[in-house]
Amino acid sequence: MSAAGEDVAAYDWWPAAGRSESPNQDARPSGMHPELIVVHAISLPPGEFGGPHVEALFHNRLDAAAHPFFAGIRDLRVSAHVFIDRAGRATQFVPFSRRAWHAGVSTWRGRERCNDFSIGIELEGDDHTPFAAEQYTRLAALIHWLRQHFPAIAADAVTGHSDIAPGRKTDPGPYFDWERLHALLRNPDPSTPGESRPGAST
Ligand SMILES: [Zn+2]
Predict the structure, then answer these.
(1) How far is the CA of 124 from the centre of ligand 1 (A)?
(2) 10 Å Cβ neighbour count for 155?
(3) Measured in angstroms, how far is the CA atom of residue 1 from the centroid of ligand 1?
(4) Ligand 1 centroid to residue 3 C-alpha, Å
(5) Mean pLDDT of the chain
(6) In the chain, pLDDT over 70 holds for what percent of residues?
(7) Is 31 exposed, middle or buried (0-12, 13-18, 19+ CB in 10 A)?
(8) Strand ranges for the chain from DSSP E
């Protein structure tokens, strides 16, 4: 067990992401490893992009006076493993071997408590706005890297929050283009894990 755990911990941080470790994490149940990737979307305030509030939320430092919406969520204790902003910049909040608090009450293929066995990725976005090309390429690079280092994640084990919490969650929403993501995953960019190189961008 310990050897396997050490192997997982060796890939706790994605080299292409900045780090901003959140206190909202704990250990996965004994023997559990990442098997599922859950795609989310978040924007704070809803529909506004580019502010500091998502990171603040994941650090329990949301300024309730900054927007009326925040009073209702300031006491949430939530996190995701990685957040990808509109420019495709990635920030990691929780080591992959540990449990982030992103899925809530959830079921995937009959298994409850998806946080136990999943990796949560938040895209900056909402239900009304197309996602940026840079977000798709960065997300695909991350998933490709995760599949390389966490072999328990099966090829078809990428889902949306709305799929594991139907009726309760709508993200990543109608503007998330799953076909586009799957096309990128079939043809991973050789520059993975995401460092840009001359001529690699489109
Ligand atoms: Zn979500």
Answers:
(1) 11
(2) 7
(3) 31
(4) 32
(5) 91
(6) 89
(7) exposed
(8) 18-19, 25-27, 36-42, 82-84, 90-92, 98-100, 107-108, 111-112, 118-124, 158-160
Work out the average pLDDT over 105-119: 98
Listed residues: CB within 5 A of ion ligand 1: 40, 161, 171
Burial 162-192 (b: 16+ CB within 10 A, else e): bebbeeebebbbeebeeeebeebbeeebeeb
- In our burial notation (b when 16+ CB lie closer than 10 A, e otherwise), range 54-68 reads bbbbbeeebeeeeee
pTM of the model: 0.90
Q: pLDDT tens digits for 137-180? A: 999 999 999 999 999 999 999 999 999 999 999 999 999 999 99
Residues serving a catalytic function are 122
Expressed in angstroms and rounded, the spacing between residue 42 Cα and the centre of ligand 1 is 7
In this structure, whether the domain defined by 2-186 belongs to CATH 3.40.920.10 is answered with no
Residue 195 has which token pair? Answer: 């460092």
